[in-house]
Design brief:
Shape: rod-shaped
Number of helices: 12
Largest sheet: 5 strands, antiparallel
Number of strands: 17
Strand content: 15-25%
CATH superfamily of the largest domain: Reverse transcriptase/Diguanylate cyclase domain
Helix content: 40-55%
Strand order of the largest sheet: 2-1-5-4-3
CATH architecture of the largest domain: 2-Layer Sandwich
Distance between the termini: 127 Å
Number of domains: 3
């Protein structure tokens, strides 16, 4: 081979090595091949099409080149007439080819040899570029997977730490939207959008995609949306939806239908977080399958968060009065037992038993609706009158109780009891009416007794206060078990 062709090959190798992508390397190759041989037409053919060509317009039909094989000496392209042709193989394993054609004269042996050398160099370069691209995709995949795992762990920790449910759901949608940088992610529950992150999208698009997944009972796609069900205690309660903005000329991402599956979440592989200083991982290389994996992983987190919140709500309902939201009798006695067990010292804690005066008259004259509003207002004042360490509860009807824990002396319990009486005795403005009630309070002090016994003693003391002088407090004394109270 001549010195000229060797120099050309060296320069050619340097140029395509710096190209960076298969498309740019192919464009350099066809330009240099055509220039070196004064050819009018040149193209690179790969298994996946024709990445670059010159001489037949900007977007020629790929079949004009893909049918050409080594050994063909002449060819006629539309509008060119007969042309001399040479076809050089880039890689025998892949069948990729460099095609060069001209009209004036056949290619000389030296030209064919030079084009063969260029083809081999191009074949090596394309193989290297594919290897680099695969490694780049692998690194990006690892980065995304680390980011996914990091985000999921953050959501789990937040849910375990009793972060408000709305905040946890927002973490889920915003975390998924951050990983899929061009997507809008929404959680749709019972026809309502509970949380949405990303670019604004018509709510009807989100709810329609959610209904599609709910009806299928598994991941479902249509157009630019992909959705998968979200469960509460194993029952479908909604769906997590990914949708991408419409771009003119760009086909829908999730157009292919997804076969419905049982909504179970596979184990999520470890996903590395983006290293400090690294550019964010783009979404262009994320395929539909990976998007489904991300969606399903976050849907599982949403299911766990919603189930946990539903369970906590059920536990709360079971232990709290539905009208006043105060702890009920069962939870209150449990807390009293714990306090008595923690410190059996006499008078280490105290129990107040409250009964409202005049409440029956309010119910009888103004109705149960006003009576319920009065009970809610009393509960609010009771909570405000006691300390943060104390527990107020509604035992039923117009009866309430408070655990004072701890107390340093009996006068502390008396002071809090009087504060409760004074607060509850202030007028109430309910339904445009001024309503007045009073609280009679009994006090019993801790010691060697059960929670039920302590509650009975405070109840007996309250009864003594109610019979002796309404709107006051009395402390339990053993003599109350036999003696009758005198009216005030």
């Amino acid at each position: 081979m001549s010195g000229w062709s060797s120099l050309q090959l060296a320069e050619f190798f340097s140029a395509i090595t710096l190209a960076g992508t298969i498309g740019s390397a192919a464009r350099i190759a066809v330009q240099r091949a055509a220039e070196s041989t004064d050819a009018e037409v040149a193209a690179v053919v790969c298994d996946d099409g024709v990445p670059a060509s010159i001489g037949l317009g900007r977007t020629p039909d790929p079949s004009l080149f893909t049918a050409l094989r080594p050994g063909t000496g002449e060819v006629s392209f539309p509008g060119t007439g007969p042309m001399h042709l040479t076809v050089q193989v880039l890689d025998r394993d892949t069948g990729e080819r460099l095609i060069v054609a001209r009209t004036d004269e056949p290619f000389a042996a030296e030209e064919r040899q030079m084009l063969q050398g260029m083809s081999r160099v191009l074949g090596l370069a394309l193989r290297s570029l594919r290897t680099l691209a695969a490694e780049r995709r692998l690194r990006q995949d690892l980065q995304r997977r680390e980011r996914l795992l990091e985000t999921l762990l953050h959501v789990q920790r937040s849910a375990n730490q009793r972060v408000p449910l709305d905040d946890v759901l927002h973490m889920i949608t915003s975390g998924a939207a951050a990983l899929l940088e061009d997507a809008t992610v929404a959680l749709v529950l019972r026809d309502a959008i509970a949380s949405v992150s990303g670019a604004p999208v018509d709510g009807a698009v989100l709810t329609e995609a959610a209904h599609h997944a709910i009806s299928r009972g598994g991941p479902a796609s249509s157009g630019r949306s992909l959705a998968t069900p979200v469960l509460i205690d194993g029952t479908i309660a909604g769906a997590l939806v990914i949708t991408t903005p419409a771009t003119p000329g760009v086909p829908a991402v999730f157009a292919a239908p997804v076969v419905p599956v049982v909504p179970a979440v596979p184990a999520v592989p470890a996903l590395p977080a983006t290293p400090a200083g690294a550019a964010p991982v783009g979404v262009a290389s994320i395929g539909s399958a990976e998007r489904r994996d991300v969606l399903i992983a976050f849907a599982e987190q949403a299911s766990l968060a919603l189930t946990g919140a539903h369970t906590l709500a059920a536990v709360h309902e079971a232990h709290h009065d539905p009208l006043t939201r105060l702890p009920n009798r069962g939870l209150f006695l449990q807390r009293v037992e714990e306090a008595l067990a923690a410190d059996p010292t006499p008078a280490a804690s105290a129990l107040l038993y409250l009964d409202l005066d005049l409440f029956k008259q309010v119910n009888d004259t103004l109705g149960h609706t006003v009576g319920d509003e009065l009970l809610r207002a009393v509960a609010g004042r009771l909570r405000a009158a006691v300390r943060d360490t104390d527990m107020a509860a509604r035992l039923g009807g117009d009866e309430f109780a408070v655990l004072l824990d701890p107390i340093s002396h009996e006068n502390q319990a008396r002071d809090i009891a009087q504060r409760v009486i004074d607060s509850i005795g202030l007028p109430y403005d309910i339904a445009g009416r001024t309503i007045v009630t009073r609280a009679s309070v009994g006090i019993a002090y801790s010691g060697d007794r059960s929670a039920e016994r302590l509650l009975e003693e405070a109840d007996l003391a309250m009864y003594r206060a109610k019979k002796s002088c309404k709107g006051t407090f009395q402390e339990f004394e053993p003599s109350m078990l036999t003696s009758l109270p005198r009216a005030c």
